[in-house]
Amino acid sequence: MSCSNTVTVSQGNSFACTFTWTPGDAGPADLLTTTLSSTFIDRDGAAYPLTVTTANDGLSFTVVYPGDTSNWALGTGRWDIKFYFSSTSITRSEIFRVHVIDSVTV
To answer: What percent helix, strand, coil does the chain show, rounded to 5?
Structure first.
């Protein structure tokens, strides 16, 4: 998986990202038997669980916050995606910084 590790979102917007899984030399060929979970923690420390849905072919997944971001504190928060390739142990984790900015639309 390759992506930027920084995301900017306007407070009050929706939040969703789609990722493509590129199998490497180690790890699974797809994510069909992998459990994924994700959480955003805002600057004030409030945690927001995100919904992760894996595509039918196991080669991509989408992460969505089911509400809007109006309660997310302004500033830089952190977001992670956890991969459980087997059992209940986290096998891999991707970490991102999320800049929550105030909306400029009036």
So the answer is: 0, 50, 50
